[in-house]
């Protein structure tokens, strides 16, 4: 490489690197530091680098707290269910819209609405829809479907439905997440469907294989790769999601996920140490998922 | 056999399409309709979705904008989103050009750092940023928010732009170089115009992320009502007994620019989305 090219390259990337280092990399290092310090928000104006006292108490406190583990379980359930849901719904819609029909362009555009809707607008509309007093869902349920009483979808922890106990609020936030994110899965799967060669499928159908069999044996294997990638990406993003749950339930009704715990440790309890320790453990879990995925990819290629 | 299967699948297909449209566009339509009705009528007749001509009213919009301060909040959001998009584009055009055209020491390390930032949970970064900004007194400043947004969006923007810049033929650049054009002038006069659709799509995408953002706005600005972004403003209003019609008007008002922008640039964005994807 020429020296000039080297210099120019570095100079052009430098401004980006400065911003990313200052507002993402350094803060992450600070999280690691704070996790091992005994600091609360009130201490901040008097915090100096030369008098830091290190402690393992934060991590021990968080690790030993049942609330952390229940939040971890909720987070994993939430992330797994919503990523699986988003990919499956995305697949169903992509298949339904695969062949052209009048108005397909419009339908495609409308299906993307939840994805581009500002999260605050989406949660506000959902909260109104589900409102026990005047929301459409409860009005339809009590007037037409014969519900005995309106359901408080966002605050009810669980409810007996026949022989099952349904975690109402958690199911609702998962439904919201599927609704909001399936359009992305839809886009990716549609893009993949467009490059599926059509001739093998036609040949199979001429040979008398039904559409269902063609799907299982020809189409699905080709889509499996993009679906797995999407499931992992959606899992990683839902795992760290704060906005949707905080705005819908505030963490009530059995929906307290790790991101909401970090927030409440930081803002409500003003304890930077335990907030950072929770965040650090959360990042560790994410890295574990990434590592497992990378290992699986590597094994598949080998 | 084949016929039944085809018939069932055909029905299923239209059922999926109908449900998908109802479920995705329905809530937005519901929001629009509620924002056009008086609050009393929404409470007493929740099933009358369409406002009767006599009760149709646009009053919720001025109420939301003026009385509840969402107009001012929108102005804050606009400033933040434009500044974020502008800065992120300048930085990522330079970075993406370097990543595509130049071989330089540390290029791979740069990629790893960006991927890491992309995967780090926002809520985790929020802890030290909150602490840092309280320490240096930047909480309650829109500029602090802009820098955080730029850092969060630049890796994606750079990645999106890279796919567009690869498509620009380098022979044109070499010709310009030989004619004595400097590197920055080259980017501005040759590369940028050729990649303009991609740049516009990326800018719109970053704008949308900044316009929609909630967590950092909540952490940095909540104490300072005059500086609330509009997402924060609406979320704060839901905590009080503000009529839902006003909240719907606010929600629709912040949605319109985003949805309009999206439909204008749909083709460009869809390509970008599938290549870059969003964190969120």
TrEMBL record, chain A:
Q: Which UniProt keywords apply?
A: Cell membrane, Membrane, Transmembrane, Transmembrane helix, Transport
Instruction: Give its localization.
Output: Cell membrane
Pfam families on file = BPD_transp_1
InterPro entries registered for this protein in UniProt: MetI-like, MetI-like_sf, UgpAE/MalFG_permease
| One of the protein's GO biological processes | transmembrane transport
Q: Which membrane topology term applies here?
A: Multi-pass membrane protein
Sequence intervals crossing the membrane: 12-37, 76-97, 109-126, 215-233, 275-296
The record places domain ABC transmembrane type-1 at 72-293
Q: Can you list the GO cellular component terms from the UniProt entry?
A: plasma membrane
- Which family, according to the similarity comment? Belongs to the binding-protein-dependent transport system permease family.
Q: What is this protein called?
A: Carbohydrate ABC transporter membrane protein 1, CUT1 family
TrEMBL record, chain B:
User: What CDD domains does the record point to?
Assistant: TM_PBP2
What's any GO biological process attached to this entry? Answer: transmembrane transport
**Bilayer-spanning residue ranges:** 12-33, 78-100, 112-136, 142-161, 190-211, 246-265
Q: Cellular component terms, GO, for this chain's entry?
A: plasma membrane
> Which Pfam family is an annotated match for this chain, by its short name?
BPD_transp_1
Keyword set, alphabetical order:
Cell membrane, Membrane, Transmembrane, Transmembrane helix, Transport
Name the domain of life this protein comes from: Bacteria
Q: Which family does it belong to?
A: Belongs to the binding-protein-dependent transport system permease family.
Name listed for the protein in its UniProt record:
Carbohydrate ABC transporter membrane protein 2, CUT1 family
């Amino acid at each position: 490489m020429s020296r000039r090219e080297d210099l120019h390259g570095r100079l052009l990337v430098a401004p980006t690197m400065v911003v990313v280092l200052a507002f993402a990399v350094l803060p992450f290092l600070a999280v690691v530091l704070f996790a091992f310090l005994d600091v609360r928000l009130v201490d901040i104006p008097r915090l100096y680098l030369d008098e830091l006292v290190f402690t393992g108490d934060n991590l021990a406190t968080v690790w030993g707290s049942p609330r952390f583990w229940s939040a971890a379980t909720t987070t994993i359930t939430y992330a797994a269910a919503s990523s699986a849901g988003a990919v499956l719904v995305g697949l169903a819609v992509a298949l339904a819209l695969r062949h052209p029909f009048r108005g397909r362009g419009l339908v495609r555009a409308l299906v993307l609405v939840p994805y581009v809707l500002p999260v605050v607008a989406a949660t506000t509309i959902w909260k109104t829809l589900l409102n026990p007093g005047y929301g459409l869902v409860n009005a339809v349920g009590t007037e037409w479907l014969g519900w005995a009483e309106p359901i408080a979808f966002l605050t009810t922890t669980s409810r007996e439905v026949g022989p099952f106990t349904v975690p109402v609020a958690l199911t609702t936030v998962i439904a919201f997440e599927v609704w909001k994110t399936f359009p992305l899965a839809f886009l990716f799967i549609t893009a993949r469907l467009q490059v599926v060669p059509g001739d093998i499928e036609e040949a199979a159908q001429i040979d008398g294989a039904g559409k269902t069999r063609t799907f299982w044996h020809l189409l699905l294997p080709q889509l499996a790769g993009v679906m797995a990638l999407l499931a992992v990406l959606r899992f990683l993003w839902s795992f760290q999601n704060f906005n949707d749950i905080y705005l819908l339930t505030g963490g009530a009704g059995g929906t307290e996920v790790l991101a909401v715990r970090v927030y409440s440790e930081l803002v409500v309890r003003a304890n930077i140490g335990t907030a950072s320790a929770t965040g650090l453990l959360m990042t560790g879990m994410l890295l574990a998922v990434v590592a497992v995925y990378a290992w699986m990819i590597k094994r598949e290629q080998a | 056999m084949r016929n039944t299967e085809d018939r069932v699948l055909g029905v299923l297909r239209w059922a999926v399409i109908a449900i998908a449209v109802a479920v995705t566009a329905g809530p937005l339509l519901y929001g629009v309709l509620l924002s056009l009705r008086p609050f009393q009528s929404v409470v007493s007749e929740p099933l009358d979705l369409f406002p009767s001509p006599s009760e149709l009213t646009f009053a919720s919009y001025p109420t939301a904008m003026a009385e509840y301060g969402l107009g001012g909040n929108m102005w804050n959001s606009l400033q933040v989103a434009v500044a974020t998009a502008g800065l992120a584009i300048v930085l990522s055009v330079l970075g993406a050009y370097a990543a595509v055209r130049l071989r330089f020491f540390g290029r791979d390390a740069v990629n790893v750092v960006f991927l890491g930032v992309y995967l780090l949970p926002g809520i985790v970064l929020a802890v030290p940023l909150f602490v840092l900004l309280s320490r240096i007194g930047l909480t309650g400043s829109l500029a602090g928010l802009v820098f955080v947004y730029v850092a969060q969006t630049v890796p994606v923007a750079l990645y999106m732009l890279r796919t567009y810049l690869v498509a620009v033929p380098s022979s044109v650049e070499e010709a310009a170089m030989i004619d004595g054009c400097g590197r920055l002038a080259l980017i501005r006069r040759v590369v940028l115009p050729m990649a303009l659709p991609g740049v516009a799509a990326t800018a719109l995408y970053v704008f949308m992320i900044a316009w929609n953002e909630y967590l950092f706005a909540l952490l940095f600005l909540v104490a300072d009502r005059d500086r609330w972004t509009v997402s924060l403003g609406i979320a704060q209003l839901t905590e009080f007994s503000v009529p839902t019609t006003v909240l719907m008007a606010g929600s629709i008002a912040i949605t319109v620019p985003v949805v309009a922008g999206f439909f204008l640039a749909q083709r460009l964005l869809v390509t970008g989305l599938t290549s870059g994807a969003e964190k969120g």
